[in-house]
Amino acid sequence: MRILIFLSILSILLSLAVNTSAQSRRVSPNAPTPTAAGADAPLTDLTAQEMFGEANSYAKKKFAEFESKKIPFSDNLFKATIKEQKQLAAKYATALAARTNLKAEDFYYAGMLNWLAENQDNAAEFFQKYIASENPAVEKLQTARSIVVVVAARRKNFDEAEKRLAEYLKTDPIKFTERARMESELAKNYRDEKNYLKAAVHADEAYRGFKTLFQDSTSRARGLDDLLDSGMTAFEIYRDDGKQPEAEKTLEDLRKTAAFVGSTSLYYAAIDENIKYLIATNRKPLGLEMYRAALAQAVKDFPIKELQEDVARRFKKREKHYKLLGELAPELAAIDQWFPGQPRTFAGLRGKVVLLDFWATWCGPCIQAFPSLVEWHQTFQKDGLEILGVTDYQGEAEGFSVDNAAEIEFLKRFRKANRLPYDFVVTKDNKSQLTYGAGAIPTAVLIDRKGMIRYIETGSSASREEEIRREIEKLLAEK
Description:
- The chain is an alpha/beta fold.
- The protein has helices at residues 2-15, 48-68, 75-97, 104-116, 120-132, 138-154, 158-169, 176-192, 196-216, 220-240, 244-261, 264-280, 284-301, 305-324, 364-368, 370-380, 404-417, 431-435, 462-477, and strands at 335-339, 353-358, 385-392, 396-397, 400-401, 423-427, 443-447, 453-458.
- The longest helix is centred in the N-terminal third of the chain and has 23 residues, at 75-97.
């Protein structure tokens, strides 16, 4: 069943291949290459279109083969198969580049192969050649332009990106997916350059586009992700530009959209961000009022009781965090061990930015966050960042029941084995965890130089770690 689900997901991913956010994870064409259905034929016998067809369908065919052979599905199998697909695409792209008689469509398929292999610079180069060729097929031309816009935006080559976007918008067909991706990429990269005026224009277009696309999306989950990402991008641009009314209007529109499409996760995200924004802009009473009102509003917005209860559950788990944000950080309680450094108080750490990482050795997501924690320590300690890994006694180590002394020795070995450079704080009980609303782990808490709590979030993911890094940089910049 799981492999059938992933076949469906994979079909969606492949159909949207030209719109994915390739991040220059370049695949070497010299890596061991898998054998595709027709890849045993000499490369000279394959046309550019055939090469792309083989590479593009590789993963889908492999998963169908796994299903027919009843090979158990696993995340590692999925990742390995996608990696093989990229390697095959990179091999074909290299073979095409070596040919001296490429025609217009060959440039297009060479671009597509490089895009599939996530070699975005090479992809843009071939697509530029296709755009400049005589009488290119208009649909392929539009796709080529859309990818060139994305790559140019990431390179911060805004003149090129805007030029190709204008050409795209003057030509039919205009695909909503391609347009929304281009607008979104331009918005994010203009925001990086603090050009909020242009960023806002593109962010609004991207958000409108993804709202339209959601109605016809073949994947509700993907559609919701795009809605959330584009809506939050628009909000963040207005927020960073100091435009409070526009920022709040965007979040309110996102809430209404969530209610309309019946998504409690999107609904919660919009209101949660609005509450945090009110607190961060010294309007905490309004933020807490919005929290209380959200529970009643959800009853009006969602006629189904189960959805009402889901919204209430999400918000009640956040109540402690809302009350803590903007307040002086409570001192950690019942500290039993602090190593390798000496115990300190938050009062004594004033002038530093403190990151509390509530964690446990058995927590997989906690361990997945270690590389980021180490990188932040190495990068920002000189600027005033102090990381403290906070845990309590679990009564267990390496699968055995242990007393506190043995558990401390295990934690010291664990810290050394994982090369964690920051201090561990071990508490006698879970009082500190409860004080900070860390009922689930990992929970990250950021305390500013004045000792005020500015950030509390639970969970670990690439996007969450990116978010925490941005918050660290922001707080370190405050003097």
